[in-house]
Amino acid sequence: MSTTDxxxxxxxPPVSTDSDVAINAKPMAEPGFYDSLASSVLAGETISRExxxxxxxxxxxxxxxxxxxxxxxxxxxxxxxxxxxxxMNAKSGLCPEDCSYCSQSKVSNAPVPKYNILQRDRLMExxxxxxxxxxxxxxxxxxxxxxxxxxxxxxxxxxxxxxxxYDLDICASLGLLDREQADRLFAAGVDRINHNLNxxxxxxxxxxxxxxxEDRKQTLENVRDAGMEMCSGGIIGMGESHDDxxxxxxxxxxxxxxxxxxxxxxxxxxxxxxxxxxxxPNDCLKxxxxxxxxxxxxxxxxxxxxxxxxxxxxxxxxxxANSLFVGDYLTTKGxxxxxxxxxxxxxxxxxxxxxxxxxR
Length: 360
Hints:
Strand content: 5-15%
Catalytic activity: (4R,5S)-dethiobiotin + (sulfur carrier)-SH + 2 reduced [2Fe-2S]-[ferredoxin] + 2 S-adenosyl-L-methionine = (sulfur carrier)-H + biotin + 2 5'-deoxyadenosine + 2 L-methionine + 2 oxidized [2Fe-2S]-[ferredoxin]
Number of helices: 12
EC number: 2.8.1.6
CATH architecture: Alpha-Beta Barrel
CATH class: Alpha Beta
Helix content: 25-40%
Shape: globular
Number of domains: 1
Structural class: alpha/beta
Enzyme class: transferase
CATH topology: TIM Barrel
Largest sheet: 10 strands, parallel
Binding site for [2Fe-2S] cluster: 139, 171, 231, 301
Binding site for [4Fe-4S] cluster: 95, 99, 102
Oligomer: single chain
């Protein structure tokens, strides 16, 4: 979402009374409840699903206590560092899948650019921009069920060149992958593969029919077995239950994913989920915190939709999350990079490029 000029006092809008900002005034938890949960996690214990659900169902009045407790976990594993990622939409539109949230799917009428995989020069220009913006990881994304041979060849060709010139880690998001394709990508120098679970297995049929939750899990297992890191998260706010969000958090834990991008649905006009009610900032923060409690030592990234849903509470998300996308997303705008740099600095955090390389 692009920013606008600051409003003058004469043009300030009235205070919103919409339901998406109404306070959830459930009774507060007992004093010390969330801090006790954090202490258990820091001692190496796994919180129960009931406790995870308690976090996401909590009163909005508990949010400060939840974030403070979650920060203790984040602090142990990541200190005050923030990792930046840069997304490149290397192939847009033209996807045969019917994912309801996606503006590039075959069931979307959203006016998005449509083009096949970009030529080398465009991909290198984007890598240069990623480097200049302080990103450590360059995310190369195509819209597809899975990569065809031409797309595989393009990725295999460009990855070594990008890494040699800009010393960027490469995360590729190419759709469904078989084991042979995963092996080839590892050999080409790809560090991570992104393939989101998106939601729980129970809810998956509500958002996609052209492939299954099990297909996505199999791709992640192929990635893991090939020797690459798994980047996998999901989208919240698609009409799923809190139980579904908790289930996804535990599924990611059980898979052992290394990096978890958590998107908040941007209900793009022209997609089947157009008009879906926005999540409140407090609900977003509680979900982010729950993921940190369940996956204490995993990178958690505030991904697409943060500008729309967290709004002025974006900085609070960094108390539990430790990475961000800098710049735009696939078909939607992010806030200007300088706004992210300022936010990170004002929070007293540091941008880091220290990620251990994948063993080869």
